[in-house]
Amino acid sequence: MPLKGLLVVVSAPSGTGKTTLCHMLLKEFENMEFSVSYTTRPPRKGEVNGKDYFFVSKEEFERMVEEGDFLEWANVYGNLYGTSKSQVLRALNEGKDILLDIDVQGALQVKKNLPEAVLIFIMPPSFDELERRLRNRGTDSEDVIKRRLETAKEEIKKAVYYDYIVVNDVLEVAFDKLKSIVTAEKCRTDRLKGQMDKLIKDEEMLKLLKEVENG
Ligand code: ADP
Ligand code: 5GP
Q1: Ligand nearest to the CA of 158
Q2: Is residue 66 part of a domain?
Q3: Which of the listed residues 103, 133, 149 should we mutate to test ligand 2's pocket, taking the one with most ligand atoms within 8 A of CB?
Q4: Into how many domains does the chain fold?
Q5: What's the pLDDT at 3?
Q6: Bridge pairing between strands 97-101 and 118-123
Q7: Which helix (H) or strand (E) holds 58?
Q8: pLDDT for residue 1
């Protein structure tokens, strides 16, 4: 039986506009929830434990790794980040759509563990524009910006393993594409198996479909 909810995984080089686009997606799709990750990195100003991340010690994180609590985990810029397996699977089984904002290493682990996951890579329109956005955001030092641009090259190479690539040039155009991808994925026949009653309200049509489904 396919997972009841849709699992959407979004990655992008830092500064591309992933956070902006993820917020827009969560606003658009009522049934979609953001998966709060665990991390060993210290909270930034304004970040709330349990809302932005669950902030844990390295020891606590390593214990969770040993106990198999993570669907995926990775070391990103020297800090550990992981997605709770039980949290995500519970929500998907309840029929919620889940959005993961994770790095490329983690996204590929998710695809391996749950092939139904939909992987979307958000691409910056150019390196020059990526640099401009990182500078305009004003949250990173010169050193950090340089490191992020170097890392971006490695991340972009992994885009070919994703199901979809969306270039974030004009924000509204990129958002339209993201919305279309999610909408189309939610209509896939193989995803609707066992839950046709969500889509079809007519009793007679539903009976016909269920007869075929049950052989
Ligand atoms: P990420 O989460 O990928 O690091 P952010 O969402 O923080 O990126 O966006 C980085 C900066 O770029 C922010 O200042 C944001 O307002 C801006 N931005 C996002 N998308 C676009 C776009 N399509 N055109 C211009 N600026 C953008
Ligand atoms: P930040 O520290 O800026 O919030 O995130 C840094 C990077 O870590 C981003 O690319 C983000 O997508 C990634 N990240 C956040 N949570 C997770 C997670 O649970 N797993 C993995 N693999 N990456 C994550």
Answers
A1: 2
A2: no
A3: 103
A4: 1
A5: 82
A6: unpaired
A7: helix 58-66
A8: 67
11 lines ligand 1 (CB under 6 A): no
> Residue 162 contacts by C-beta under 8 Å, 6 or more apart in sequence?
11, 107, 119, 120, 121
- How does strand 79-84 pair with strand 70-76? antiparallel
Q: What is the domain range of residue 133?
A: 7-34+96-213
Q: Ligand 2: distance of its center to the CA of 104 in Å?
A: 9
Q: How far apart are CA 76 and CA 66, in angstroms?
A: 19
pLDDT 10s digits, 146-193:
999 999 999 999 999 999 999 999 999 999 999 999 999 999 998 888
Instruction: Give the residue, by CA position, lying nearest to ligand 1 atom 20.
Output: 17
Question: Rounded CA gap, 57 and 182, in Å?
Answer: 35
For 187, the 3-state DSSP assignment is: coil
Q: What share of the chain has pLDDT > 90, as a percent? A: 84
When mean pLDDT is compared across 13-22, 68-77, 132-141, the lowest value belongs to 132-141
In a domain, 107, yes or no: yes
Euclidean distance between CA atoms 100 and 180, whole angstroms = 18
17 lines ligand 1 (CB under 6 A): yes
Atom 6 of ligand 1, nearest CA residue: 17
Mutational test site, ligand 1, from 137, 145, 178, max ligand atoms within 8 Å of CB: 137
Pairing of strands 32-34, 97-101: parallel
CATH number of the domain residue 158 falls in = 3.40.50.300
Q: Give how far the C-alpha of residue 120 lies from the chain's centroid of Cα atoms, to the nearest Å.
A: 8
